[in-house]
Amino acid sequence: MKPFVLLATRSEDQPADAEYALFLRYAGLDERDLVRVRLEAAPMPRLDLDAISGIFVGGGPFNASDPPERKTPVQHRVEAEFDALLDEVVARDFPFLGACYGVGPLGVHQGGSIDRTHAEPISVVPVTLTDAGASDPILAGLPRMFDAFVGHKEAISSLPRSATLLASSPTCPVQMFRVGSNVYATQFHPELDLDGIILRIHAYGGYGYFADDEVEATIAAARRAPVSHPSRMLRNFVERHAR
User: Fold this and answer.
1) Where would I find the Glutamine amidotransferase domain in this sequence (predicted)?
2) Distance between CA atoms of 202 and 14, rounded to whole angstroms?
3) Please, which pLDDT band fits residue 188 given cuts at 50, 70 and 90?
């Protein structure tokens, strides 16, 4: 099998390593079949799309809607690299699944509006599939409504014309969308389980997701409901696109 690639942007080793382990587990891959590229550490290598099966994008600290002067040189580089990669990915309708941070690069690339209107604190939210989502092969086996982990400062407020809406939540109208047949982004985290999100809560204190005295309340919000369905889409993505 040609490997999949995980494009990651987390600079902290513990949550970065945990994220990679979660993608391995829930996508049903081993390390030889999921190549991790840490974009915060070095420029994106040239990806030969003919040599890989598909691309995953993990979450991260960057916000597409931040003013340019507030973005670091690394963020500017990463955004430019994603823009160039997505030129080829979208043109070829190449398998791509961006989790949380993936919404920013793909949404911007396709001309969508991204701002802080529909931010969601770290928590569990009910996600509802649209008719298009219910019939999408990547979402096969998921119920029409399921709980998912979220935590984001920005979201799409105006869906690109090229995109098909697949899922929504009460506080974030665009939880998942598709461009073409094979290019996806989710605002929720399909790779996360409870241990994973608790690790991130402890790792990202002071990053503006919650106040210093809200750690326990944030963990309680993550425990609000069991989350078991979203990870299925990672295995569906692999089973559909492995080659």
Assistant:
1) 49-193
2) 11
3) very high
Contact call for residues 109 and 90 (beta carbons, < 8 A): yes
Model pLDDT, residue 207: 75
Q: How far apart are CA 151 and CA 209, in angstroms?
A: 7
User: What pLDDT score was predicted for residue 206?
Assistant: 73
Structure-block tokens of residue 189 = 């985290």
Give whole-number Cα distances, 173 to 20, 116, 150, 177, 239, in Å. Answer: 28, 13, 13, 11, 28
CATH T-level assignment (fold) for domain 4-241 = Rossmann fold (3.40.50)
Q: Please give the Cα distance from 190 to 188 (Å, whole number).
A: 6
Asked if residues 233 and 190 have their Cβ atoms less than 8 Å apart, the reply is yes
Query: CA 201 to CA 218: how far, in whole Å?
Result: 8
Residue of 229, 231, 206 whose CA lies nearest to 218: 206
DSSP 47: P
Eight-class DSSP state of 152: E
Report the pLDDT averaged over residues 133-144: 98
Mean pLDDT of the chain: 95
